[in-house]
């Protein structure tokens, strides 16, 4: 597979078609007409002497050769994106404040490294982190960009789905040594629970998952996710947490992970001004790259 002989515009057309799922959507993303994009794909196949897509009417599916090419072109596309972001970050005229809001857990456990990357690539930009679980921050103009687990429906907001994450339930080894390790769902009735937010809301959610506990099982609660997590680490009961965050604390143990697990999306949300603000556009793209 002789990639050096391929035109980057043709490779980019191939990558966009795979990512968008159709020629029409890829053409819109690249600002091309569909016939132009189709000609670029055909030219790439001719240059490589490979068939990259199987065409069944309007449906496209990758061939084995197309899947092999995708691995290499994705790496090239990532490198091109990083180069573009680095160049953008050094441009003059990008100075100013960008306010990022995220949950308290995300703000404490993930954003420091992300903000470090933003500062390295765009040193003219000042970053304010608004640690809040309130999904209304954007609409009240308290922030420019939000990292959220639900997609706001307001038409003046732009949202990008970054990934799916998984949450599990944990307890400190010291707590489990004293209270016993639950082997069944019924065993959970004998344990103390820590609620993130109002107890009735979390209780209803847990009952919906088939967990046979009552309101009396919740002995501690906090609206602050970091505080609730510290209570769990201190051995005060069972608490939910993102799996990647919890992995940083080896003294905690997973509780019945085959039964107690949830998945949730990570959305990056901003105002429509992203289309006219290079500063916000740059930080949005850097956040998307880091959190994906």
UniProtKB/TrEMBL annotation:
Keyword check for DNA-binding: yes
UniProt domain HTH lysR-type: residue ranges: 1-63
UniProtKB keywords: DNA-binding, Transcription, Transcription regulation
SUPFAM superfamilies referenced in this protein's UniProt entry, alphabetically: Periplasmic binding protein-like II, Winged helix' DNA-binding domain
Gene3D superfamilies, per database record: 3.40.190.290, Winged helix-like DNA-binding domain superfamily/Winged helix DNA-binding domain
InterPro entries attached to this UniProt entry: LysR-type_TF_proteobact-type (IPR058163), LysR_HTH_N (IPR000847), LysR_subst-bd (IPR005119), WH-like_DNA-bd_sf (IPR036388), WH_DNA-bd_sf (IPR036390)
Signal peptide span: none
Pfam families with a match to the protein in the record: HTH_1, LysR_substrate
Family: Belongs to the LysR transcriptional regulatory family.
This protein's name: LysR family transcriptional regulator
Organism in which the protein naturally occurs: Sulfitobacter pacificus
């Amino acid at each position: 597979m002789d990639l050096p002989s391929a035109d980057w515009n043709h490779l980019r057309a191939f990558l966009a078609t795979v990512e968008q799922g159709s020629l029409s959507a890829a053409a819109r993303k690249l600002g091309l007409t569909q016939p132009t994009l189709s000609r670029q794909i055909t030219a790439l196949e001719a240059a490589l002497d490979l068939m990259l897509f199987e065409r069944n009417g309007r449906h496209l599916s990758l061939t084995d050769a197309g899947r092999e090419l995708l691995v290499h072109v994705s790496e090239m596309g990532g490198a091109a994106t990083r180069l573009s972001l680095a160049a953008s970050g050094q441009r003059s005229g990008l100075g100013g404040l960008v306010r990022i809001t995220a949950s308290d857990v995300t703000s404490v456990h993930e954003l420091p490294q992300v903000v470090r990357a933003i500062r390295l690539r765009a040193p003219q930009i000042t970053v304010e982190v608004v640690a809040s679980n309130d999904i209304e921050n954007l609409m009240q103009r308290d922030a420019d960009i939000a990292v959220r687990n639900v997609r706001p429906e307001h038409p003046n907001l732009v949202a990008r789905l970054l990934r799916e994450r998984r949450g599990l339930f944990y307890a400190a080894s010291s707590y489990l040594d004293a209270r016993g390790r639950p082997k069944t769902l019924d065993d959970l009735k004998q344990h103390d629970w820590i609620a993130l937010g109002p107890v009735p809301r979390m209780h209803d959610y847990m009952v919906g998952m088939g967990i046979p506990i009552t309101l009396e099982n919740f002995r501690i609660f906090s609206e602050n996710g970091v505080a609730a997590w510290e209570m769990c680490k201190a051995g005060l009961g069972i608490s939910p947490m993102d799996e990647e965050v919890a992995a940083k604390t080896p003294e905690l143990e997973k509780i019945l992970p085959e039964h107690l697990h949830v998945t949730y999306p990570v959305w990056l949300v901003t105002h429509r001004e992203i289309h006219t603000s290079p500063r916000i556009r740059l930080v949005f793209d850097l956040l998307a790259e880091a959190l994906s």
